[in-house]
Amino acid sequence: MDSLRTARARLKSAQRVVVLTGAGISKPSGIPTFRDAAGLWKDFDPEEYATPQAYARNPQKVWEWYAWRYKNVMQAQPNRAHALLVELEEQKGEGFLLVTQNVDGLHPRAGSKRLVELHGNIARGRCETCQERFPLPDPAHFTPPPTCPACGARGRPDVVWFGELLPPGAFERAERAFAQAEVALVIGTSAEVEPAASLGRIAHLSGAYLIEINPEPTPLTRLADCALPIGAVEGMEALLG
Ligand code: APR
After folding, report:
1. Are residues 108 and 176 in the same domain?
2. What are 105-115's pLDDT values in tens digits?
3. What Cα–Cα distance (Å) separates residue 172 from each residue in 81, 121, 167, 202?
4. Is the pTM of this model over 0.85?
5. Is 141 a catalytic residue?
6. I want to staple 139 with a disulfide (CB 3.0 to 4.6 A). Which of 18, 71, 150, 199 is the partner?
């Protein structure tokens, strides 16, 4: 396991840098994770709220849960870790790609541009008929379900549910970037949900220098060249500060 000094040097000199983030990066912004002690899946059964079958059974119940999360997310602010990733993107330019599993929209709100939202975005709806994607109304004026602005049919949350395919091309773009990266940085994910969880392994097997920031060990930790057992804000400040 390399030292922080080596990780800092590798990150500084690399031209092709990729990042994968999970719910842990947004926890300091007050947004709950899923599998932590106080995670969402402790109180809400994903089978009841985050599958196409759950939505088909009871769309209003699923929508009310997403509308609640949407309101909470829109009250949260990006934190220092999100901001430091924007700085890293500005340093690396074309050689940078941020891939997130998060649907909270904190990365784009922080200013990240070279971004792939693998699991969609909770602030958007998607028409069940014509597939049009559209921004949801402001949470204060939002009573679910939304109607499609293009055809008037009902919209669903524009997020990827368990058992669903990722947005077309999203994973392919991410996979290509992780296979070509010199440094891969994995922040705040339990690395349990595929296909996102495979990205760290792909980078490692392709010879990238792998850095993990997570207070807890994950299946990726043993592959990491440098594993920082600290939070996202502290880890990003240690690497870039
Ligand atoms: N900084 C960094 N990591 C943290 C912090 C923190 N301050 N606090 C907790 N963590 C770590 C936890 O140790 C855990 O490994 O964040 C991780 C969160 O893991 P999960 O809750 O499983 O979230 P995530 O990995 O993003 O889940 C992946 O699963 O439920 C689906 O679609 C959902 O996108 C989500 C996917």
Report:
1. yes
2. 999 999 999 99
3. 26, 18, 10, 12
4. yes
5. no
6. 71
